[in-house]
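Title: [Solved] Anaerobic sulfatase-maturating enzyme 3D structure

Original question kept below for reference.
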Amino acid sequence: MNADAARQAEVARTAPFQASPNDVAAIANRIACSDHPFAVIMKPTDKCNLRCGYCYVPHRGHHLRMTRDVLKASMSMLSAMLGWRRQLHFIWHGGEPLAMPLSFFEEAVALQRELFPGWFIDNCVQTNGTLLTPEHVAFFADRGFSVSLSIDGPADLHDKNRTFANGRGSYRRVLEAVSLLRERNQAVGAVVVMTPDIAANIERVYRTMRELRINFRINPVIQIAGDRSASPRYAVTPDDYAQAMIALFDLWFEDDVPLHVDPFNLIVGNMISDTVWGCDYHGGCLRDVICVDPDGGVYPCGQLAGRPEFRLGNVLKDDAPAIFAAPMYARLLDRRHLGIAACEGCHHRRICNGGCPVAAYMRGDMLGRDYFCEGRHRLFDHIRRRIEEDVARQAATPLPAPRTGGQCDGRPRPAG
Ligand SMILES: C[S@@+](CC[C@H](N)C(=O)[O-])C[C@H]1O[C@@H](n2cnc3c(N)ncnc32)[C@H](O)[C@@H]1O
Ligand code: SF4
Ligand code: SF4
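Solution (posted by the thread starter after getting help):
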């Protein structure tokens, strides 16, 4: 069996039924009723000027570009799908979104205004930064877009993997993008991808991001069998993940002026509150995200885009109910419940819910546990212990005595 046939067989195994009209109505209802924000990952092109070694985007070089028809049909589908939610987060992704002309984004904003009157709409561009111009920055600043760059820590680590077609590293150009954004007071965030090199140098990565004053999200490399990203060179084991994330957590936790580091802000918040946030923690991500490819293909997640076995339909041909009726979608929406068997007895289940379905697919079963399960488990144990120690230390420290003789007696002061 070739790799594609094996993957199709796997999807068929986890999707043994055809959704009935009742299932479709139930799915539509669950999507409309979710209490998490909904995000659409829009891939306006699969074209990219970089050749990052670990990149999961398939078909690079096809140079597909999203047309106005696809843009409009995507938005119409989303407005039908989301019902009364009236909130939508657009993530402009790719390929490289800034390989599209600025007029594409102007058109997108005009369509958003037309098709989502009164909705809460926001936009984020996820970019490699190398094509960013002052015109982009002015447009994004004026329209309230947020910008996230891809920066893999210090220059030597970044330039190992994030290269132009001629093999030259892209770091210098990314730092120019940071300066351009800051000149317009535009906030800058970043995604760091954890490769074995990044894991082995995690302290240097944190110090660099801190020097740059850039909040970041760190994700381990996702490798799916048969992809170019699946080279053993990029393989991060659950043990590498645990060691690096625990070290990173300690740096962050002990920092006097920490950055905002995802997933730590999320994990700590999830541990101490009732609601669980973050797509790879709350277990219902597939109700809250969808991805549209340049040709209008719809996929359950950005990392699955372009893979025929995960295609749910096409915005030019299929309406929202037809997309919900894709059998694989119905099964994936149930992952939280179906996947729970694999996580039976785990004391972190409330805040982990089996992790990310795409990372679970690294083991060949989207309904199973996240590939990094063992690493996540150790990280959660560690974070929990550190929070408990901190709370105990604070509880044992007497509060400072109230100051006497001061001005404040708790009563409002007369003005002037
Ligand atoms: C696919 S890129 C598209 C947007 C843009 N070209 C960029 O690089 O930011 C989106 C993000 O996915 C990350 N990424 C690419 N391949 C990955 C992989 N195999 N595992 C995890 N993240 C990956 C990139 O580093 C980037 O931060
Ligand atoms: S810049 Fe983004 S899309 Fe392009 S190769 Fe790198 S990770 Fe992939
Ligand atoms: S840590 Fe592992 S076993 Fe526990 S819920 Fe997460 S994926 Fe499941």
